[in-house]
Amino acid sequence: MQSAGPTDGVAPHGATPSAYLVRLLRRRRRTRVRQLVIWSRAGCHLCDEMQEVVESVAAERAMPRVELTVHDLDLAGSEDPELLARYTSKVPVLVLDGVELAHFWMEPAQLRAALLRPVDGPP
């Protein structure tokens, strides 16, 4: 007979179920890849600064795994005029898991808080 493992949802002997669940949820939060997108423009110094902040915070040990994609708004906008119209005066735009998070600038502390917030949905 096999013993209960950490992934089957059963608390190990001696652990309270609530404490075990908290640890399990924290582990899941750390293993889910968060999707960050920066809508940028060539020659945009604010875009470069936002990318530096995102890369610096994402590299911190306590942060969940992050996949960063930087898109050129003008290039993408040539095929999607609606996208261009929506973001043209807001560049850079930071999007986290499909939700607009910031325009122009993002404080590192705010990004940390957003990345550490619990995520709905499957890990």
Name a few traits of the molecule.
123 residues; alpha+beta; Glutaredoxin; disordered N terminus; 41% helix; four-stranded mixed sheet; 4 strands
Characterise the protein shown here.
A 4-stranded mixed β-sheet has the order 2-1-3-4. It is 41% helix and 19% strand. Strand 1 (34-40), helix 2 and strand 2 (66-72) form a beta-alpha-beta unit. The two termini are 29 Å apart. It has a domain at 33-116: Glutaredoxin. With 123 residues, it is an alpha+beta fold. The model is unreliable at 1-9 (pLDDT under 50).
In short:
With 123 residues, this protein is α+β, with helices and mostly antiparallel strands. It has five helices and four strands; from the N terminus they run H-E-H-E-H-H-E-E-H.
Secondary structure elements and pairings:
Layout: H1 17-31, E1 34-40, H2 45-58, E2 66-72, H3 73-77, H4 81-87, E3 93-96, E4 99-103, H5 108-116
